[in-house]
Amino acid sequence: MVNPRFPRSRIPAFKLFTSAISISLCIFFLLSFLFTTHSYSSHQHHHAGSDGGVAHGFESIRRSILALKTDPLKPRLDQIRKQADDHRSLALVYSSYARKLKLESSKLVRIFAELSRNFSDLMNKPRYRTLFSSDASSVDESVLRQLEKEVKERIKTTRQVIGEAKESFDNQLKIQKLKDTIFAVNEQLTKAKKQGAFSSLIAAKSIPKSLHCLSMRLMEERIAHPDKYSTEGKPTPPEVEDPNLYHYALFSDNVVAASVVVNSATKNAKEPWKHVFHVVTDKMNLGAMQVMFKLKDYKGAHIEVKAVEDYKFLNSSYVPVLRQLESANLQRFYFENKLENATKDTTNMKFRNPKYLSILNHLRFYLPEMYPKLHKILFLDDDIVVQKDLTGLWKIDMDGKVNGAVETCFGSFHRYAQYMNFSHPLIKAKFNPKACAWAYGMNFFDLDAWRREKCTEEYHYWQNLNENRTLWKLGTLPPGLITYYSTTKPLDKSWHVLGLGYNPSISMDEINNAAVVHFNGNMKPWLDIAMTQFKPLWSKYVDYELDFVQACNFGI
Could you say which protein family the record assigns here (predicted)? Predict the structure, then answer.
């Protein structure tokens, strides 16, 4: 049945119209094909020959048909172009920043400017410029791949240069690298300091060959002529116990050092025959010391030479430090021989000096018992040189104090806090951390005031508490500061100038004005490491005219 809305006569006309449209489209595609093939073939024939042209012709036909919608290589091309532009801009920014900061300036500016120019030159090549032309209907994939390869190579180079130059622009990175460098240098410095301290300690411990030779030759003389030098069975000279004379205490195992102290004191004394020197050494050096002080008369001065073993009360049951020196922990502390272990505590390296193992170093706390008939005595270390008459010390009013000493504090240095552990409650409760320290080396002691204040008992109390070294490290100065905390009389600094064994900057005016100069430190004047500008102050009192000294080539 026929639909009344579409009469039968109109159906053939509709089919005719549809067929006409189809034929028109076919003609259009045919003409497009012929035109494209002809153009592409002519172009390829000029560059690559007819065979290549045919192959590319078919590829172009395929592209042309797809280009009716969108060429799939276009997004890829746009991405490559964007990457190139971004890195070109980045190179320009770094070039501008380098110019602003004036960093190596010319070099970095040139590098980044050249990188930016490379990107521009690449994109302006005729071969690649056609890819970006507005009338290009398709993208040649082989050309695109070559462009992509070159762009990636330039991007890689740009990033590498930026990475290497980033330190010049990134302040935070600069700071971090500087911190790392400082840390590394500090590590090296700390290691060098430890090794230096250890080497210095070894040098300070050493006994020069000439000094060892002298001790042996003097001992040989003592053994060869025992009656000439022995004092056994002989009465004690009255001058040794006469409180009206000027008495000195000198404790040493160094023959030459002890003789220099006595020599310098007697040569600068106005009335040397009124001076009495109490020299105490150990049993091993007693013979050499007896011979040394018998070889000359020292301008009439009186010299008593004894061994520490002659004082029978000095034993481990009475002397705390002797008992402590027998402990395994303390012996391990002193005799540790591995560098990495021996240098753990660089700050207190000096306390590993073996002199602290000797009771000679602690005799200074027993003066009233060693010399019961004396009222006053001057204690001298064996590394000092006397340059003036010292009898003026006996005229000083001690104001009831026990110890006359030169104070060493200045600013925040050489205060009590540097010598003892103020985190310990006993130390914190008893002492002021800002109290001024003083020096051992030349100390004038009022023995009557000492006995009255019971200073030896005070010393024993604190030494017993410090058996584990929790109150202070080793040495005799910290317990001295504690024992004479409120009983020390400050002396004028010209009496005692310190530092000639470690400080090269002491002025000669200060040294020449001093009554006593002290070679405290590791660079003792009898060692090869002594400071040459100060050594003559000591060596001029060595008895080079003695045959024993000459035989051992004891150099100046």
Answer: Belongs to the glycosyltransferase 8 family.
Q: What is the mean pLDDT of the chain?
A: 82
Give yes or no for a contact between 268 and 386, defined as CB atoms under 8 angstroms apart: yes
Q: Among the residues of 48-140, which ranges form H helices?
A: 50-66, 73-101, 106-123, 126-129
What is the Rg, in whole angstroms, of the alpha carbon atoms belonging to the chain?
49
Task: Locate 308 and state its tokens.
Answer: 């520490």
CB 485 within 8 A of CB 455: no
Q: Evaluate whether 354 touches 441 at the Cβ level (below 8 Å).
A: no
Q: Cβ distance 482 to 431 under 8 Å?
A: yes
Residue type, 270: K
Q: Is the dihedral of CA 10, 11, 17, 20 positive or negative?
A: negative
Instruction: Write out the H or E segment, with its range, that includes residue 377.
Output: strand 376-380
Q: How far apart are CA 305 and CA 121, in angstroms?
A: 98
Residues 6 or more apart from 389 whose CB is under 8 A from it?
268, 269, 270
User: For the segment 485-494, what is each residue's pLDDT rounded down to a tens digit?
Assistant: 999 999 999 9
DSSP state of 14: H
Residue 336 has pLDDT above 80, yes or no: no
H helical segments located in 373-465? 425-430, 447-453, 455-465
Report the pLDDT value the prediction gives residue 166, as an integer from 0 to 100.
67
Higher pLDDT, 187 or 386: 386
CA angle 87, 90, 94 (to 5 degrees): 140
Give pLDDT tens digits for 20-40.
666 666 665 555 554 444 444
Grouping H, G, I as helix, E, B as strand and the rest as coil, residue 373 is coil
Burial of residue 314 (number of CB atoms within 10 Å: 0-12, 13-18, 19+): middle
Q: Tell me the whole-structure pTM to 2 decimals.
A: 0.66
